[in-house]
């Protein structure tokens, strides 16, 4: 049996050499150019204010906690400073974004008939908020703005909602090219990420130093904009709609939860009748790489969601981790355990594409086959002896 053992050792040596060569070749390749892993954002929320549970405490007279110093220096004049108040250049940013939205980003979606007047839109927004006390606002404050900005819009079969999955949802929606989220509508795109609050005592009518964003006695003040935005967007959604939920929520939060924009402002406002009604709600539940699975379709809060939806006469479907979204999650969490194998398999598929079927992996595979062949021979040989 000695010749066989020698042969096996020889084959093993060959295999190891070829694997080593492969490894060094790969290392050299990856050493040539250093690339960072792709990165979307870790955001699970936008910067809209969190919804606080409503309390049954009787409405007290609204107290102003913000300073009422008149004619505070406007920090936006001169050099730019980051403040906790209204974003410097609010007006210019909003008007600029409005033009960009209509003329650059979606010129084809905009025709002569439905071009919105950006100055008029800004003025409608401004008249709702400027020189007004932030904590006196309510869900009708921005009504005219939304009526104007979203007039004539219907989002059919492409409306996408999200809760606790901001970054992944927006990567997937592709700024409205794939699906349309609230933030992809003109009304929301004009202010997304900006901060503003009115102040009746400021010469500018806006407080550029600090915004309260926490009106103790009037929870509707903080929700005045994003609450109405969510409600209005939900009313425009028609046909099949999609909602991306987070099945890996931490801190006892559930995928579908009370005091979320989806449960409080969107779900209750989907149209149930008429030409532009919602027919089907598709829930997509994501489980983040390297995170625990807390809920799957049909479990816990997702069971509640299903009941709520079907009781309202909509069709319901739920899917855990569609591949289209797994790829985005892995793109963002390159190093996660679940994504490593996928990366390797993709690499192999691309090598085959680049170098054809007779690539190095095939070679090492055939070496492995030879090795097994000899192993079997030895076993058989030993048994005979
Ligand atoms: C504006 O000034 C009035 C009178 O000084 C005061 O009562 C009010 O609280 C002030 N408002 C704000 C938002 O500072
Ligand atoms: C903004 O608020 C944060 C937290 O309250 C505070 O630490 C920071 O100093 C404030 N910045 C300005 C410019 O007032
Ligand atoms: C747009 O609205 C502004 C302010 O309301 C108005 O002055 C202007 O004439 C309007 N522009 C057009 C083209 O209608
Ligand atoms: C909202 O505020 C406006 C002006 O402050 C007031 O006229 C209106 O009645 C309020 N609406 C609600 C629903 O409270
Ligand atoms: C789900 O929530 C967890 C906890 O907040 C977060 O780490 C994770 O990134 C979220 N998943 C997605 C897909 O947004
Ligand atoms: C929301 O609150 C209501 C009333 O308290 C409760 O019946 C429901 O189960 C809650 N929903 C979720 C998703 O927790």
Automatic annotation (TrEMBL):
SUPFAM superfamilies: N-(deoxy)ribosyltransferase-like. The chain crosses the membrane at residues 364-381. Keywords: Disulfide bond, Hydrolase, Membrane, NAD, Signal, Transferase, Transmembrane, Transmembrane helix. It comes from the Eukaryota. Residues 37-62 are annotated as: Disordered. One of its GO terms (cellular component) is plasma membrane. Gene3D superfamilies: ADP Ribosyl Cyclase, Chain A, domain 1, NAD(P)-binding Rossmann-like Domain. InterPro entries: ADP-ribosyl_cyclase. Coiled coil: none annotated. Belongs to the ADP-ribosyl cyclase family. This is ADP-ribosyl cyclase/cyclic ADP-ribose hydrolase. It comes from Adineta steineri.
